[in-house]
Amino acid sequence: MPATHSAAILVGNGLSIAFNSELNLQTITEEVMRRIEDADGDDVVAAMKEIAERALPDGVTSAEDFEQLVGAFGAESRTLSTLETLASLTSPTDRKLRRAIRRVASFAEQVRDNGISHVLEVICERSHAYHDDAADLHALVSAILDSFDGRVVFGNLNYDTLLLAALMHVCRSGDLADMADGRTRVTVTVNDEEEREVPALRATAGDFPAGRRVRLLHLHGSLTYWANKGRTIYAKLPKDLLDDGDQWKAVRERTTNVRPAVVLANPKDKAQHVSEYPFSLAYKMFKHALKRSDHWVVIGYSFKDAPVNQMLASVFLEYEEKPSVLVCTYGDQPSREEVERALGWGADDGDSKDWLTFSRRGANGLQDTRQWERFIPQ
Question: Which of the 8 DSSP states describes residue 311?
């Protein structure tokens, strides 16, 4: 009986840009900064503006400014959470001190929510592919699914819903599973202070249907993934609930009981974020897919994310016979040496050309390249 071939597909911002140039991180950051500058409001808005200005004093100059901006919004609230823990340990009877820290921490959370809601609202508005681009993305996704007869698992680093929409369009009924658990519903209060029942996020690996061949894992969350403040409810909100902007406004006005569940952090804090649910589950599931896949496809990822690189390298180094790896990018970056280093392949290990292939013309049309034809199982 012929062996089946499974694939792990890691997707970065390059995929989104290939099918909607408005999702370029620099242009997103520029629009977010414009909206923050134009915002009217109270002390929370004033603090948000101050943090944005401090994070990017010279304005937006590159795609790297995106992480600099979003990381700045979360840094203060994480620091204050640590201070509260320290206060309870060093001054357990000083209730006044702890109350003061909680008050400032609550303010910092409001500032973070305001900033991040602007970021995700912009992404939400741009989270679509125009007709021709959508057809091209559907063609790429179809080619990936048709080229592998085993399980195909997508690890998505993007917050937008382009890939989800494409998979829903292409996949046969009952073939696709993401992190939303259709069997379990939770109640959340949304933009109009109305209670809605929406799907919960899957709690464990065992919640994924074994019979579904295609999986989509948002490693750093999605604009549709939300949680309440106590982290007792994790839900997937329908995209159409987010499209009119009212839910993002509700976050800023604090009239909803849920907040986006995403990893929007600076590089130093990101490792801590991804160790927490639901991101930890997505990482665990994708790491399992890497271990079970003889073909890895990396599309539009820069190999600059430390937690992602650590996951890739930890699995790659376990392989005696290395998996076939195809890196699809646009241009000269990342270099072969950067990819080798990220995966733990050293100079003494020999030539990586036996297992590592590059396609440098971008994601759109990847399936029509010679590199793809040579890469896929024959």
Answer: H
Q: What is the DSSP string of 341-367?
A: HHHT--GGG--GGGTEEEE-B-STTGG
User: Rg of the Cα trace of the chain?
Assistant: 21
Nearest Cα neighbor of 325 from 347, 295, 353, 349 is 295
pTM of the prediction? 0.93
What are the helix (H) ranges across 205-358? Answer: 239-242, 246-253, 267-274, 279-292, 306-316, 336-343
Cα atoms in the 13 Å half-sphere on the side-chain side of 60: 18
* Residue 166 Cα distances to 115, 136, 148, 343, angstroms: 29, 10, 17, 29
- Rounded to whole angstroms, the Cα distance separating 199 from 25 reads 29
Q: Which of 5, 232, 218 is nearest to 120 (CA)?
A: 218
DSSP state of 300: S
Quote the tokens at residue 220. 């750093």
φ/ψ of residue 195, rounded to 5: -80, 135
Neighbours of 152 (CB within 10 A): 28
Is 179 within 8 Å of 262 (Cβ atoms)?
A: no
Contact 329/360 with Cβ under 8 angstroms?
yes
- Per-residue confidence in pLDDT tens, the chain, 378 aa: 456 999 999 999 999 999 999 999 999 999 999 999 999 888 889 989 998 999 999 999 999 999 999 888 877 655 555 655 655 655 666 677 777 777 777 778 888 889 999 999 999 999 987 778 899 999 999 999 999 999 999 999 999 999 999 999 999 888 999 999 989 999 999 987 889 999 999 999 999 999 999 999 999 999 999 999 889 999 999 999 999 999 999 999 999 999 999 998 877 788 888 999 999 999 999 999 999 999 999 999 999 999 999 999 999 999 999 999 999 999 999 999 999 999 999 888 999 999 999 999 999 999 999 999 999 998
